[in-house]
Amino acid sequence: MGIFSIKSKEENTNNEECNIILHLNMRLMPVDRGTFFEDPIDDILHKYDIGEVIGGGTSLSKERMPISCDIDFRIKRDKIDNFISFLKNAHTIARGSYIYVEYNGEKKEIGVLEGLSLQLDGTGLSEDVYKENDVNDVISEINALLKGKGQYYSYYIGEKETNLYFYGNSFEEMKQIIVNYTKTSPLCKNSIIEKI
Known about the structure:
The protein is 34% helix and 34% strand. The protein is α+β, with helices and mostly antiparallel strands. It has 2 domains: 16-110, Alpha-Beta Plaits (2-Layer Sandwich); 114-195, 2-Layer Sandwich (Alpha-Beta Plaits), CATH 3.30.70. Strands 2-3-1-4-5 form a 5-stranded antiparallel sheet, with helices on one face. A 4-stranded antiparallel sheet has the order 7-8-6-9, with helices on one face. β2 and β3 form a beta hairpin.
């Protein structure tokens, strides 16, 4: 046979691809969407010859705060079930997320994590507090306190506030763990903890 050999019907079916959308009910800036989801998942898809990431986007509020995001995949038809099972078993996705399979219109709810937003006062504290303290230290210290109960995922910087987004197994548990820290950290004065 030449280079234009005809594939069997079975081979064609096995190699057909379809588009799948992963909707993440998570507040992620585009770079964090890539770091936590797109890049590592794309590596796995290529490693096991399942498919690839073909795009993504983040929904923003009018203030340009991240609300949710989508990741678009092209997946081999005969490996869709494996891919969906992989996402369902991923313990890094928040509740309210879902998978949408384009060719049959199926929508499957996934996700186990709950979200916590820590809103920091960006204008109401003294200049010395902003000069002498680093928000990255706040993130590191809270991550250490959570010790696997949750972790930092992303942020939003508004005109008057900075929001830090954490996801974990339980909002209430994360809140109880960090509430005392927020009472002693200079940058956390006037902070607000909310479930997202």
